Amino acid sequence: MTIRIINKSKNSLPAYETAHAAGMDLRADIEEQVQLKPMERKLIPTGLFIELPEGFEAQIRSRSGLAFKHGIGIVNSPGTIDADYRGEIKVLLINFSTEVFEINNGDRIAQMVVARHETVSWNEVEVLNETTRGEGGFGHTAVK
Ligand SMILES: O=c1ccn([C@H]2C[C@H](O)[C@@H](COP(=O)(O)OP(=O)(O)OP(=O)(O)O)O2)c(=O)[nH]1
Ligand SMILES: [Mg+2]
């Protein structure tokens, strides 16, 4: 499928790095270097605006390399881009490391996965069907 996109940045369009990659890397669109101090969070612009078809969303996910090497995560992970959003895609990065992390224009700061989603309506009832799990959760199945 193709998706309409406006690129106001000077970076190339997000692209799949390998043939069967799920995510396209997003690049920072910034005038000056951004520094993230330990535990600091900042909203990083991408200069990208997209028009997702109805029934699709885009997820903004962290890159494992940045997470592993530099402790960089996404606060609202995964970020959700709604199909009716026409604003700029932004990435809410956080620095979980003990060192300052520098972001320069064009750096690949996150990845975006486009996915289908359902739009549901509720069937409000008094009782839900029974299952083996029942109400157990949050470690319920852990070995004792
Ligand atoms: O990482 C993100 C998350 C969201 N958005 C944009 C697209 C999304 O469609 C919109 C709203 O996001 P969300 O619903 O997560 O935020 P909210 O706090 O519920 O804001 P709103 O009241 O505008 O829905 O913000 C981004 O650019 N990056
Ligand atoms: Mg919302």
TrEMBL record:
Top-level division of the source organism's lineage: Bacteria
| Recorded catalytic activity of this chain's protein | dUTP + H2O = dUMP + diphosphate + H(+)
Could you say which cofactors this protein requires?
Mg(2+)
Per UniProt, the keywords (alphabetical) are:
Hydrolase, Magnesium, Metal-binding, Nucleotide metabolism
Quote the record's binding site residues for substrate. Answer: R63, S64, G65, N76, T80, I81, D82
Q: Which InterPro entries match?
A: dUTPase, dUTPase-like, dUTPase-like_sf, dUTPase_trimeric
Q: What class of enzyme is it?
A: hydrolase
**What's the short name of a Pfam family annotated to this entry?**
dUTPase
Q: Which residues form a coiled coil?
A: none
Q: Where does the record place the dUTPase-like domain?
A: 12-141
Q: Per its record, what are the GO molecular function terms?
A: dUTP diphosphatase activity
Q: In which pathway does it act?
A: Pyrimidine metabolism; dUMP biosynthesis; dUMP from dCTP (dUTP route): step 2/2
**Which EC numbers does the record give?**
3.6.1.23
Task of the protein: This enzyme is involved in nucleotide metabolism: it produces dUMP, the immediate precursor of thymidine nucleotides and it decreases the intracellular concentration of dUTP so that uracil cannot be incorporated into DNA.
Homology family:
Belongs to the dUTPase family.
Q: Which NCBIfam families match?
A: dut, PRK00601.1
PANTHER family linked to this entry: DEOXYURIDINE 5'-TRIPHOSPHATE NUCLEOTIDOHYDROLASE
This chain belongs to which protein, by name? Deoxyuridine 5'-triphosphate nucleotidohydrolase
Q: Which species is this UniProt entry from?
A: Mucilaginibacter lappiensis
